Amino acid sequence: MRRTVLSVLLLGSAAVVGADVPSGVPTNVKKERQRAEKLPPCKACTVLVNSFREGMKRTERSKHEGGDAAWEEERLGSYKTSELRLIEIQERLCQDVGRGEDQCHQLAEDYESRIEEWWKQHQNDHPDLHRWLCVDEAQVCCPDGFFGPTCEPCPSCFGNGKCKGNGTRKGNGKCSCDEGYDGENCDRCGPEHYEAFRDSEKLLCAKCHKACAAGGCTGAGPNACRVCRTGWV
């Protein structure tokens, strides 16, 4: 009898454990796929720089280890810009990355000498590592507000969208409008939205009242509907 009860309990426990295991691709396989994922050049460089910045945050309060702090500061220099700190950052570089981790490690090797050059020579005059490495040196990104192989200026998109390729060496620069906006330059309201405000530089569109059907509206409230939904008059 005890064996029967024990068997039932064990089978029940196994069923519960089995129910917690998700179907489909195992978690470790998903992680491996994420690690091996190939990111676009600008994104990959940005991921590397972000990981380096996290390393800088992690080590910003550390100091040289040793008994004579004054001697170390004199002989080894400020820890803030020391080679020791750089090594400590590089030791854990890309370990905090999920998607594209393998690519990040490869880029860290490819850009190692450039990162060391920035660390030793350009931190003061070029404090933005992303701009120095990804935009100016590797030339795989553009500054924000620019796009394409030669980093041409993005259109304003009237403040209601983003240009395709913004910040990268890709894209055609055309506006991708936010929800509720339309037009080549996002300078008019989209379907089922109305113009709430406009001046020479800004356009604000608001969603039509829920009483309005697909025809949209001319302004705020149910009385501005071009066509009412069923149940509204």
TrEMBL record:
* Xref: Pfam families: DUF3456 (PF11938)
Please tell me whether the keyword Coiled coil is annotated for this protein. Answer: no
Q: Which residues form a coiled coil?
A: none
Which superkingdom, per the lineage? Eukaryota
Q: Which UniProt keywords apply?
A: Disulfide bond, EGF-like domain, Signal
Q: What InterPro entries does this protein's entry cite?
A: DUF3456, EGF, Growth_fac_rcpt_cys_sf, LE_dom
* GO-annotated biological processes: animal organ development; system development
Question: Which cysteines share a disulfide bond?
Answer: C177-C186
* SUPFAM superfamilies named in the record: Growth factor receptor domain
Per UniProt, residues of the EGF-like domain are 147-187
Position of the signal peptide: 1-19
Tell me the protein family, please.
Answer: Belongs to the CRELD family.
Write the protein's name.
Cysteine-rich with EGF-like domain protein 2
Taxonomic lineage per UniProt? Eukaryota, Metazoa, Ecdysozoa, Arthropoda, Hexapoda
